[in-house]
Amino acid sequence: MADHTHLPLRDFRDRDDANRQLQEWIRTEAGHRIHGTTRQAPLTQFVEVEKPLLQRLPETPSEISEWKQPKVHRDAHVQYAYCFYSVPFRLIGQQLWLRATDTTIRIYQEHELVATHPRLFQHGTASTVADHMPPEAQAWQSQDIQWCLRIAEAIGPHCYGVVHQLFADRVLVNLRTVQNILRLRDKHTPQRLEAACARALRFSNPRYGAIAQILKKGLDQEPLSPVTPESGSTYTSGGRFLRDSATLFH
User: Is the separation of the CB atoms in 178 and 184 below 8 Å?
Assistant: First the structure.
C-alpha cells in the first residue's frame, strides 16, 4: 500500500485505490527514472535482467520450521517446547536433530528420519510410539486398568485404595502413575508396599512420590496409630474409593 511519501499531494479512497495509483506511478514515472545507485532505469533492469531469471512458485507453500538438537533421555524421549516425543530406544543418550512445524515433529539421526509425531502443545504431554520402547517397557505399557486393579487387590486393601483413588480422579491420566506404584513391588516386598500405601492414605497423600519416599526412608516399618472414627481415612472406612470396579467404572 502506498502512502503520501510515494505519491505526494494525492488522495486515496481506500487501500485498493492507493495500490492502483502506486502501480500507475511506477509504470509511467518512477520506473523510468535513472536509479541513483545502479544508474539503470528500474523497469528496464527488471525486463532485461531479472524477469528471465524468475521461476514458477512451488505447487505447495513453503513450511516454516524450527530446528533443535535435543538429547535423548533415558526414557527414550526427547523434549521440545515442554512436550516429549519418543524415538527408538537404541538412541538413548545420543543427540539428534529435531524439526518442528506447526503440525508435525520430525526427528533425525544425521540424515535418517527416525521418528515422526503430531505436534503437541499442552505442556508435559508425551507422544509415545510403542515400538520405540524396549521389549520390557512394551510389556509394562500393555498392563491395563483391570490388570492394575487385580495386582493392587492382591497386594492388599490399602494398595487397592490408592489405585482406586487415582483411577477415580482421572483414569487415563493416572494409569502410568498406578503402574509405577505397583512396580515398586519389584524393589520391595508386597507387604512393605501395602504398609507404605496405608501410611500414604492415612496422611491423604496417595501419590507415587509419597509412597516411594515412605519406602526409601523405611517409614512403612514404623507403627501407625489406631484408626478412630475421628481419624479414619475415607479410603479404608467405606469411602467412595473402596467401591468395586464394576460400580466405580460404570
Answer: no
